[in-house]
Amino acid sequence: MLERREVISMKFVLEVAVDEGAPAQDTVRELGRILRYWGGNLGHYAMEPGDGSPVYDSEYREVGQWRIVAS
C-alpha cells in the first residue's frame, strides 16, 4: 500500500549584501564561497519552514542570512 504524504510548499531564501565598491571578481568569488559552504552544510538542517542561519563572508562578518519559508 502506498503511503500518503502531506506536501509542504516552501522556498529557500538566500540574502547576501555585497560591497558595491568591491571589484566584480571579488564579489563573484565571495558569493561562490558562500554558496559552496552552505550547499555542503544544509544536510545539518531539517529544511522546514523556520529553519535558517546567518551568512558570513570570508572575514567572518555577517553579510546576510538564509531561511526556509512556507510558500
List the main descriptive attributes of the protein structure presented here.
71 residues, alpha+beta, three-stranded antiparallel β-sheet, 1 helix, 30% strand, elongated
Please characterize this protein's 3D structure.
The protein has one domain (10-70). A three-stranded antiparallel sheet has the order 1-3-2, with no helix packed on it. 25% of the residues lie in helices and 30% in strands. The two termini are 30 Å apart. Strand 2 (52-56) and strand 3 (62-70) form a beta hairpin. It has one helix at 24-41, and strands at 10-16, 52-56, 62-70. The protein is elongated and about 55 Å long. The longest helix is centred in the middle third of the chain and has 18 residues, at 24-41. By secondary structure, the chain is α+β, with helices and mostly antiparallel strands. The mean pLDDT is 90. The protein contains one helix and three strands.
